[in-house]
Design goal:
With 296 residues, this protein is α/β, with parallel strands linked by helices. Strands 1, 2, 3, 4, 5, 6, 7, 8, 9, 10 and 11 form an 11-stranded mixed β-sheet that branches.
């Protein structure tokens, strides 16, 4: 056999080996997985960052993020339409007036952090602090003009979230109590819509998740906006003398605190379980800490 023929045979053998290796790698590649998460807009920014990082580490996993509010998210996960519900609602407690909906006993709630509701106004508003009583008087319609509170912003414009939003549930429970919110309140379907509205209306006041205004919270050690030179879109007010900083929320020293849950229909498994484990890991909790108070 000639040297040339031997070389050709060896080359063909090598090509065959490489091709077989490539086929083996292709077969071993994990199939793509889509995880549907929906619910709380307060958790929107944190979930975007968490899912982006998880997909970077696991390219075969993609996420379908949906809003709609905490109540809608929990309803969807009960019905099997979502793999995970993002919720800021407190768990059912009949004694506290929160009865368990049908099917709730199957749900598993995994806490991942704590959130605080920030009270916001337009940056030109001279008011810098309110008490819970003043806030109740404003949103009940008992106080209708900023002048009585030390500002010349004119007649107060109330901005609220829609029914079923975790922020509204907390606000009505902790601030309004037995009083009803004024029917004149403008209703917005998400946190960013609230901020956009308040930033364009000098007489507006609203409540919103701290995650969307973290750069403008006074006393927040991680605030970046304070050093960027850019004017804030909204102004965060002190409530009962405190701001919704991570420190105040962690110490339970702020008046409007709510939990952050990832809710699954039963014990999570597969990629859903691995994603939740990632959220609770040091890397995941460091991402949560950009927007909320981490749980660990």
């Amino acid at each position: 056999m000639s040297r040339h023929l031997i070389f050709v045979l060896a080359l063909l053998l090598l090509i065959g080996t490489l091709t077989a290796g490539c086929e083996e790698v292709s077969v071993a590649a994990p199939p793509p997985t889509t995880i549907v998460i929906g619910g709380s807009s307060a958790m929107e920014l944190a979930l975007q960052a968490l899912t982006e990082e998880y997909s970077r580490q696991h390219p075969n996993v993609v996420f379908d993020l949906r809003g709609g509010g905490s109540t809608l998210g929990e309803e969807a996960v009960r019905a099997g339409r979502y793999h995970i519900a993002a919720s800021t609602l407190f768990p059912p407690d009949p004694e506290a007036g929160r009865p368990a909906p049908p099917g709730d006993e199957r749900l598993v709630r995994t806490p991942i952090g704590l959130n605080g509701l920030a009270i916001i106004v337009h940056p030109t508003n001279h008011v810098s602090a309110l008490s819970l009583v003043q806030l109740r008087d404003i949103f009940s319609g008992r106080v209708i003009d900023w002048q009585s509170l030390g500002s010349d912003a004119g007649e107060i414009v109330l901005v609220s979230r829609e029914d079923g939003a975790g922020a509204r549930v907390l606000f009505e429970e902790r601030v309004m109590g037995d009083e009803r919110m004024a029917l004149t309140a403008v209703v917005m379907p998400g946190s960013q819509y609230v901020i956009d509205y308040v930033s364009r209306h000098p007489a507006a006041i609203a409540y919103v998740s701290r995650s969307h205004v973290v750069d403008w919270i006074p006393d927040e050690s991680s605030s970046r906006q304070q050093h960027s030179g850019e004017p804030p879109l909204v102004k965060v007010l002190a409530l009962e003398g405190r701001y919704p900083t991570r420190e105040m929320i962690t110490q339970q020293q702020y008046a409007l605190i709510q939990p952050l849950y990832l809710i699954t229909p039963g014990q999570p498994s597969g990629q859903v379980r691995r994603f939740i484990d990632f959220v609770l890991s040091p890397a995941g909790q460091s991402i949560v800490a950009r927007y909320h108070a981490p749980i660990r």
